[in-house]
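User: I'll paste a sequence; please echo it back and then give the predicted structure.

Assistant: Echoing your sequence first, then the prediction.
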Amino acid sequence: MIKGIIYDMDDIMINSYPLYAKATEVALNEFGHTLEEIPREIQAHFIGRRTEDVMKEIVDYLKIKVEEKILINKRYEIFYSLIKEELTIMPGLIKSLDLFKKENFNLAIGSSATKYYVKLVLNKFNLGNYFEVMVTGDQVKK
């Protein structure tokens, strides 16, 4: 018998991929690079991974002469700004949450995103009361 439902956040609950790409592009532009310089087959491996890991891979691939943490922080700054201005929830999210809650399922979020980011999203859309458990990328090593 199923007792709980685990939601992934990015592109299941919220339409975040376009904002990830936009934030990465803007951050790279500040250091004289573009996302187009990275082959699509390499970019495909970025999906579902932690931002720190992706940005480190980008720095290595493009041989950007910048401390990784600086680029990572810049990208986070841009991304969080975009979340506040442009982020939308996926169609049917609220309906599914309401249905599962009505049927007394326990709801959780499992995401490779940071706890700060997950809480930012939950607060923006007033979704915090739906979830009993949250496990984020900054709580695990792999």
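The chain is about 50% helix and 10% strand. The longest helix spans residues 68-86.
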